[in-house]
UniProtKB/TrEMBL annotation, chains A, B:
InterPro entries: Flavin_OxRdtase_Frp, Nitroreductase, Nitroreductase-like
Family annotation (Pfam families): Nitroreductase
A GO molecular-function annotation: FMN reductase (NADPH) activity
Start and end residues of each Nitroreductase domain: 16-172
UniProt superkingdom: Bacteria
Claim: NADP is one of the keywords in the record: yes
Family statement: Belongs to the flavin oxidoreductase frp family.
Enzyme class: oxidoreductase
Keywords in alphabetical order: Flavoprotein, FMN, NADP, Oxidoreductase
Keyword presence, Flavoprotein: yes
Name of the molecule in the record: FMN reductase (NADPH)
EC number: 1.5.1.38
Length: 255, 255
């Protein structure tokens, strides 16, 4: 990294060095570290200052065990030191406006506010992830909690107008995995307009080969998937088709 | 900050020091800095490696002027050095799976995949924001591009299954605003379950007073809004009620 300002170097290395960690030591995380991570999450941008998210920190071993099961038997949800559930939260806004005698239900039921709350939760989460990694912690996002969002919501006593967007395992790493190669920058970043995708078709093909080599190395040849192969496998069958009706039940009718 | 590991200190200060910047110098951003910021964005986590987002970097002055107008006459969209539009992108996945002869339309039309793509875009964006600030740049998120998402999509030639989630202004700061106080941690972070909201009612009231003092100081008494007042103003009238039909037209029927 040439010509990079010194102050930026450490941060860039941290961000570019991210790998998901799924094996953790049994070391606990000091509570002041958690507090600092959450403070970082809170300082992320939020649409019109609505702060439409909440974070549930799960340390209770029984709750973690159940969440691991609900997430599709992802054991690291149970074995990580601290599990965070990031929720899109319009309930608090409903409460403070009602306290002022104003009914804003119509607004809160729009697709727009669903986007706002989901994005607010995600921005806070990514700040938390970066802060955690700066403390030497490993993290992995757990979209799997959307496998059983009803059960997760019940277990964590989420009120209406709150939905669990994803979880995040935090813990001290007990593994040192390789980075999974990302798409070439030419395929995700475009100047002044979206290009004809055929202009990046060659780059996508090269990326397919890169991902294939990554899997061959990692699995000693057992797995030889290209990225396109992975995407076909992942997308061939619709997953979590319950999300629409789940959200409707939770007070997100996406109007 | 006591007991904080030295390596974490800089990152925590960066994240906790965030303020939105809306006034920029006329200095341009070196292209290698943009490239590095986008690389950081790309290394954020992504659901099942789908990488369901794209970023349009807008430097063309005419495009920026139009985007500023579409975003509700937010001049900083025009005056910032570099404007980024973060898009949820299922089009690329549609392309690579079709290239393999597989039709995954049913999957891509689910609410679940809408969440995945929106979250992917947001995680990438927050990494970009952090990387930019580490380089001494100022940033502000622009949800305003959802005021006229149709026009934005047309202007940037977004294909179907791609929608602009938000924009982000990047530039060297020409202002040094105060931080807007966030909700007390007790109101957004909960251990092992969502509490009865009445247990934090007092904290919410105190926060209302804190926000009021912030506005009194900042506007020399002209503005005296509490947070609850702000929320009533912001939420009384539904905004961007076109999002549902816009998304449907773009290939996100939220099934």
């Amino acid at each position: 990294m040439t010509n990079i300002p010194n102050q930026a170097k450490q941060v860039v290395q941290l961000l570019q060095g991210h790998r998901s960690i799924r094996k953790f030591t049994t070391d606990q995380i000091p509570s002041e570290t958690i507090e600092r991570i959450i403070h970082c999450a809170q300082m992320a941008s939020t649409s019109s200052h609505v702060q439409a998210y909440s974070i549930i920190g799960v340390t209770d071993q029984d709750l973690k065990r159940k969440l691991a099961e609900y997430a599709g038997n992802q054991t690291y949800v149970e074995t990580c030191a601290h599990f965070l559930v990031f929720c899109a939260d319009l309930y608090r806004l409903n409460y403070v406006t009602k306290s002022k005698g104003v009914d804003v239900t119509e607004t809160l039921e729009t697709t727009e506010k669903f986007i706002v709350a989901t994005v607010d939760a995600a921005l806070a989460a990514q700040n938390a992830a970066v802060a955690a990694e700066a403390h030497g912690l490993g993290v992995v996002y757990i979209g799997g909690i959307r496998n059983n969002p009803d059960k997760v919501a019940q277990l964590l006593q989420l009120p209406e107008k709150v939905y669990p967007v994803f979880g995040m395992c935090l813990g001290y790493p007990a593994q040192d995995p390789e980075q999974k190669p990302r798409l070439p920058q030419s395929c995700v970043y475009f100047e002044n307009g979206y290009p004809d995708i055929h202009t990046v078709a060659e780059d996508l093909k090269q990326y397919d080969q890169e991902v294939k080599q990554y899997y061959i190395q990692r699995t000693k040849g057992k797995r030889q998937d290209t990225w396109s192969d992975m995407m076909v496998k992942t997308l061939s069958t619709p997953s979590r088709t319950h999300m629409k009706s789940f959200l409707e039940k939770r007070g997100f009718p996406l109007k």
